[in-house]
User: Which sequence fits this backbone?
């Protein structure tokens, strides 16, 4: 298959390396000012999935430089860049090209599908952790579950999506298909909203947060508020009530990622813009639509934004 990976951070580096190493044609798209940093270097991935490397078929700042008719564009940019990215992508989509939204947070699928159509938009829930070591070099640090791929509104044939899933699995990226990918994405949103900002503020691992009674109470409150907001907005989750999710969260999700620091922690450390507006900040906006109050999510959002400013 022919892929373009739009965004060459940690996640984009992993997708690019594994897919290319397995014999697919893979192009990278990054910001113009970064192009020279990728010249004549192999992409590399280390960590829990072993040692991998590959030379991509080209690295550009725009899709206009890619002559191939792409099968898929994997969108891995930060959520605050989604609107810009999809507008840059749209003019260069062929009739068969589809975009895989493989990002954190709420709202990315909505932005992309509204711009290019649901029949060209796939959603991927990604819950493996990767850290960028250098340009074109990433470390896979943790995995909590397979990459889950689907079309939330059933607008793309299942057999086509399953073929893509098979390509990912052959490349060494554990993946599966699901019609419930949107609900599964919300599992990750819950997970990230509870862990990422608190871990970034306190500069500690997910396991540390689960072991301290005070931080556990804060996370419980974040989760409770999200359930109230999603219920009011008629967003379907995999869980009937917050207590059921908390049992899964503490017993199934956190243990395999206990030693992991949130990506938000690393972003703040290096002075990079953070994605809080697509996580707890998005919960605030959904709450405002229904005149609801979410004081814990509000407080955690403001604290992360303050920490971001104080670090710059």
Assistant:
């Amino acid at each position: 298959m022919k892929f373009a990976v739009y965004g060459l951070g940690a996640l984009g580096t992993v997708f690019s390396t594994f897919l290319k190493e397995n014999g697919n044609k893979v192009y990278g798209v990054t910001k113009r000012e970064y192009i020279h940093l990728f010249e004549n270097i192999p992409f590399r991935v280390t960590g829990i999935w072993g040692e991998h490397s590959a030379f991509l078929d080209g690295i550009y700042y725009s899709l206009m430089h890619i002559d191939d008719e792409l099968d898929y564009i994997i969108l891995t940019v930060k959520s605050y860049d989604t609107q810009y990215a999809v507008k840059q992508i749209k003019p260069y989509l062929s009739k068969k090209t589809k975009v895989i939204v493989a990002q954190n947070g709420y709202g990315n699928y909505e932005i992309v599908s509204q711009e290019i159509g649901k029949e060209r938009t796939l959603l991927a829930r990604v819950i493996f952790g990767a850290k960028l070591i250098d340009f074109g070099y990433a470390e896979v640090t943790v995995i909590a579950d397979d990459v889950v791929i689907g079309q939330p509104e059933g607008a793309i044939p299942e057999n086509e999506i399953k073929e893509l899933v098979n390509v990912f699995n052959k490349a060494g990226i554990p993946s599966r298909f699901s019609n419930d990918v949107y609900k599964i994405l919300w599992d990750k949103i819950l997970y990230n909203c509870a862990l990422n900002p608190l871990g970034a503020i306190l500069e500690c691992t997910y396991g540390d947060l689960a072991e301290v009674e005070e931080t556990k109470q804060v996370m419980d409150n974040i989760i409770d508020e999200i359930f109230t907001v999603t219920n009011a907005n008629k967003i379907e989750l995999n869980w009937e009530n917050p207590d059921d999710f908390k049992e899964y969260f503490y017993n199934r999700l956190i243990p395999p990622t206990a030693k992991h620091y949130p990506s938000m922690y690393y972003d703040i450390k290096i002075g990079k813009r953070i994605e809080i507006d697509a996580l707890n900040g998005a919960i605030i906006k959904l709450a405002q639509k229904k005149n609801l109050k979410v004081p814990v999510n509000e407080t955690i959002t403001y604290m992360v934004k303050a920490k971001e400013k104080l670090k710059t």
About this structure: The chain is about 45% helix and 15% strand.
